[in-house]
Amino acid sequence: MPSVREAVAGLVESDRLDHWLVEAPETVLIRLMAPLEMLAFQYHREPPQDRHLVRAARVACEELEDALEECPEDLLRAVLRLRRTLLAEAR
Length: 91
Hints:
0% strand, mainly alpha, globular
């Protein structure tokens, strides 16, 4: 589970988050913000609820799946890293 938390941190604690909000097209923002807010909430929750964090991460990845080509490059990499990590954890 630490690897999922690290991958989520790459999204919710990125110093590029504000830039993503400016750079991403509106269609991506509409699909990104609710899942990202949910993901950030679960990431910072005390005590941690790992199963909720994993579910929020899956939802965020699924929601952005069709919009990845429109995402800024570093956001794309962060989402793909999270997706790979979730797949590895599922095995």
